Structure formats: C-alpha cells, structure tokens
Amino acid sequence: MYAVAEAATTAYFGTKVYARGIVEFSNVCTKDCFYCGIRKHTKVHRYTMTKEEILACAEFAYSQGMGTLMLQSGELPSPERINFMLDVVRAIRRRTMDLACESPPFPSAGPNQRDFPSQRGLAVALSLGELPSSVYQAFLEAGASRYLLRIETSNPTLYTRLHPASHSFQARRKCLEELQRIGFQVGTGVMVGVPFQTVEDQANDLLFFKELDPDMIGLGPYIVQSQTPLGKLWLEEHGEESAAKQEANRVALLERTTRMYALARIMLGNVNIAATTALEALDPEGRELALRRGANVVMPIITPQRLRGQYEIYENKSGIDQDALDSTACLERRVRMAGKELLLDGGWHDPPHFVR
Ligand code: 5AD
Question: Whose CA is nearest to atom 2 of ligand 1?
C-alpha cells in the first residue's frame, strides 16, 4: 500500500515537495470543540497579530521562496474581524505582487509565474473556519484563492460527540460545498485516532473525500490536550497505562495516520496532501514518513516565536522554541532525509487536480 502510494505521488510530483508558510495570526475562538486547545473555554492568553506583523510574515515567506501563505486562526465571525482580514488579504497580495515586479527574485520560478502572470507574489490560503457564503465570496474577490476547512469526521454522530450541540456537521459540510461553488481551491481533512472513532469511520472519511472531490487534503493524528473535555476523558481511560503500552499506542497511531495518507493518495490521485505538523508530536520523523507515504506538501509554521506557545491546539506541539528561519532550514534538511526536494521557487504549485 505504501509503495503504491509513493509511486502515485512520484508520478504526479516527482520528488518535489511544495512549501506553504503558515501564520497562526490569532487564537481567539468562539467555538468550543471538545478536543481543541484553543477552544473558547480553555484558559490561554488570547492574541491577535497586527496587520503589520502579518505582512512581515508574508514578506518573509515570499523572500524564502514559499509561493503560498496560509493564514489560520480560531473562528471569529465578527464584522470587525472580517473587514480586518479582507484588508490583510488585499495588502499581502498587493505587497508581494509589487515585490515580484520590482525585482523578480525567482527568474526560474515554476511554470505558474510564466504562464499565469496573475499568479505572482504570494498565493493566499485561508483557514478561518465557518463563515457565510457572502464572506467567502468577498475573500475570493480580495485575492485569496485557497481555503482549508477540515470536516474533522465524516460521521455525523461522531461529529456530535466531539462538538457542543451548537456546532453542526451539516453546516460545516455546506461551507465546503459553498467554497467549491464560489471557486476556491478547497482543502479538507479529518483527525485520526480521535476517541470513539472506528476503522469503518476512517473508511467512510476516505469515501467522503472521494465524493467531495477536494483539491487538497490536510489530515493528522488526534493529540491529547489535557485541558480539554476530550483530553480529560482520554486521560481517565489511558492516563495510567504503562510506558510500554503508551509507546505501542504512539506507534499504532502513527501507522493509522500514515495509512490514511497512503489511501487518500491512492484514491484521490492528483491532489495536494499535506504532511501535518501534528505528526511531529508523535515522532520527530513523522513528517518524513508521511512524505514517503503519499504526502507532497509541508507547511512550515512561520508564526513569530513569542506567540507560538499560545497556539497549542494540542500538546507537545513541535517548533515552539524555534523561529521561522530555523523552521525553514530544519524543514529543508528533513525533506532531503525523506529523499525529496523542497521547492522554494516562489511558484504557487496548484495541484494538477485544480489546474485541470
Ligand atoms: N489534536 C490534533 N489536531 C487537532 N486539531 C484541533 N485539536 C486537535 C488535537 N487535540 C486540529 C483540527 C483543526 C485543526 C486546525 O487542528 O482538525 O481543524
């Protein structure tokens, strides 16, 4: 299975790995998902970066040759936040397009930049959660072109157990359909190994992907966050287990997650699949493993170091003590260790699935 997945990945992408810088610009959240470390009811210092701070990250990503910037935050659907973000998206596009015109730093940049002059500067990807269609539309018009919204689980009953009653599986699915209709490149994904999840649920997750037909998949292991209701429940059941048992759990979860990468690659073919950061909480070489089992994208965190500790969606999150330059250099090394090559040529690198 892993060999077939790797063969499919190299057939579409060669040994090239795409990079998207990710800025976790705010941990303010109105949602209360039972598994998440930045849910409304965890005690954590809340921050929101300024427009200038986010722009500085964008310039950094651009200067490093990452073609895409992903802006991620908790959910805050207020008019102020939406207007702020529309302004930020426009500013990033304007600033990085100007930079590209002044002195094209990547003369040999990917085919995108030669064939599609509009694809200059940074592509902006958003991961801001559920919003009204009109707001998604406004973001597209402001210059964003990609949107990541995990369905978290394709099983509506399991969804209900992982979220408060006010959160709706149907509403979330509707958002994904709207994003596709509006014309975004859409990414989705699930958590693997979340309490109550069965292997059948995982099979259905893959069938859900197949049916939705997204351009990108971002899935990762569930990692316990001890301040959350689900984390507490998990610790009650498993907290006392022996070190040997815990080690066995860790290895099993790594396997269970990378099987999902492999199967997603085999079933969906030419989409982008991201090797998520959460894998590193399981194994320092988790991301390399994913890159050899179906993934073709890495998303280095370029959030300023002083804020990283506050965006602990889950515990043992890697890179908390690194700054953006460390993360990028480290990533290049790691990708090479997986026998692949990190592309830092400023290209947007849409997946063939979307280009077609
Ligand atoms: N473990 C792993 N992933 C998590 N996420 C939220 N909480 C956790 C956790 N405890 C994931 C969700 C969300 C993404 C931003 O982070 O899937 O979509």
Answer: 222
